């Protein structure tokens, strides 16, 4: 659990005192989008590997 807290602190600290606010919001949305895409790629690879699909 400490690792997740560390990553959260890094994430929050990266956006402290950043201007303009709209850019901060866009970067936060983009980082969440990238995390979701990475999760989907790992899930798709795992699903195909477990079910024996051809690569």
TrEMBL record:
Domain of life of the source: Bacteria
Keyword list, A-Z: Membrane, Transmembrane, Transmembrane helix
Membrane-spanning segments: 29-50
Pfam families registered for this protein in UniProt: DUF6747 (PF20532)
Keyword Membrane: yes
Name of the molecule in the record: DUF6747 family protein
Source organism phylogeny: Bacteria, Pseudomonadati, Bacteroidota, Flavobacteriia, Flavobacteriales
């Amino acid at each position: 659990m400490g690792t997740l807290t560390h990553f959260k602190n890094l994430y929050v600290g990266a956006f402290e005192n950043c201007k303009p606010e709209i850019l901060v919001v866009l970067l936060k949305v983009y980082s969440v989008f990238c995390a979701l895409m990475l999760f989907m790629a790992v899930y798709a690879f795992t699903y195909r590997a477990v079910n024996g699909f051809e690569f």
